[in-house]
């Protein structure tokens, strides 16, 4: 069976009929509730917080954020972003408590730096990996999303994105984009080896001092190892690169391309010093 994101873009797939069907399904409501509570557990919030819900749909997750009891650190205030006008219309009809923004997360997160304490996203970011036309660049969309999200979170903030990658390449593309944006990142797999497998991407801002388990769930568990993909791949950083050198210029161009911007092609003259002639 085809995945929804392979059929149509989300703003077209979730029309009035599909949005209502999704929202009223008791099965979907149960799964959404389970994943939202799991994401909140990974966010580790101990007091009422301002949360951005990315791909909020009709507000199923937002309702849970609003209903968290004071004993569990809530209730939380939230703002939801979604590209589907039909989904947001149903959220308004359901009179959810959060504020709603019709926006494409693949174009960034348009809020002031440091606006949010935390972010949550349920079953949304895999949609960014699909190109509906030759003009759409999945890497660029992921880059804009994660760079915007990183900027919108306060230092020390966290984000948890539950997602369904199509394959290992897609999973790697998503996590690489998050790390390049500056996040400390870790992936948690729930129910591995079953058809109910769920992935949670746990992201931290200013979490460079955190070593090993970014997700925070491995603590005190016996016989569990944390794999650091950056060390395994021989990540070395950018030491020895001189500003203005060819290597520095090429790296900057690659960064711009990942953001979806058009850059001039490198030539044999790239990075060469120019001789100045004064008359």
Helix/strand layout:
Blueprint: H1 10-13, H2 16-24, H3 26-43, E1 50-54, H4 60-67, E2 77-82, H5 85-93, E3 99-102, E4 116-122, H6 138-152, E5 153-163, H7 168-180, E6 184-190, E7 198-204, H8 229-232, H9 246-258
Parallel strand pairs: 1-2, 1-4, 2-3, 4-5
Antiparallel strand pairs: 5-7, 6-7
Helix pairs in contact: 3-4, 6-7
Features:
single chain, seven-stranded mixed beta sheet, 279 residues, alpha/beta, 33% helix, globular, 7 strands
Structure in words:
33% of the residues lie in helices and 17% in strands. It is an alpha/beta fold and 279 residues long. The protein has a seven-stranded mixed β-sheet with strand order 3-2-1-4-5-7-6, with helices on both faces. Helix 3 (26-43) packs across helix 4 and helix 6 packs across helix 7.
Q: Order of strands in the sheet with the most strands?
A: 3-2-1-4-5-7-6
Helix content: 25-40%
Question: How many helix segments?
Answer: 9
The average pLDDT value, as a whole number, equals: 85
The class by helix and strand makeup works out as alpha/beta
Shape, principal axes of CA atoms: globular
Cα Rg = 21 Å
Number of strands: 7
Taking pLDDT < 50 over at least 5 consecutive residues as the criterion, the unreliable ranges are 220-226, 230-236
Terminal CA distance: 72 Å
Relative strand content:
15-25%
Largest sheet: 7 strands, mixed
Quaternary: single chain
Q: Helix and strand succession?
A: HHHEHEHEEHEHEEHH
């Amino acid at each position: 069976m085809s995945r929804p994101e392979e059929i149509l873009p989300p703003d077209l797939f979730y029309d009035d009929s599909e949005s209502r069907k999704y929202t009223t399904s008791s099965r979907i409501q149960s799964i959404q509730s389970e994943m939202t509570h799991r994401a909140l557990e990974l966010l580790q919030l101990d007091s009422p917080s301002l949360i951005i819900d990315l791909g909020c749909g009709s507000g199923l997750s937002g309702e849970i954020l609003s209903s968290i009891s004071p004993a569990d650190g809530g209730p939380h205030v939230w703002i939801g972003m979604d590209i589907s006008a039909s989904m947001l219309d149903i959220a308004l009809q359901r009179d959810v408590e959060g504020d709603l923004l019709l926006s494409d997360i693949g174009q960034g997160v348009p809020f002031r730096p440091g606006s949010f304490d935390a972010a949550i996203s349920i079953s949304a970011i895999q949609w960014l990996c699909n190109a509906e036309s030759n003009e759409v660049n999945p890497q660029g969309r992921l880059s804009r999303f994660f760079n915007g999200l990183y900027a919108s979170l306060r230092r020390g903030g966290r984000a948890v994105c539950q997602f369904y990658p199509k394959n290992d390449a897609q999973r790697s593309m998503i996590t690489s984009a998050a790390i390049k944006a500056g996040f400390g990142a870790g992936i948690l797999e729930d129910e591995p080896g079953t058809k109910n497998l769920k992935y949670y991407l746990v992201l931290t801002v200013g979490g460079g001092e955190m070593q090993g388990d970014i997700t925070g769930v491995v603590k005190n568990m016996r016989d569990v190892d944390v794999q650091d993909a950056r060390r395994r791949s021989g990540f070395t950083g950018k030491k020895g690169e001189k500003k203005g050198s060819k290597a520095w210029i090429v790296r900057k161009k690659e960064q711009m391309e990942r953001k979806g911007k058009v850059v001039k092609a490198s030539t044999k003259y790239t990075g060469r010093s120019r001789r100045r002639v004064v008359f």
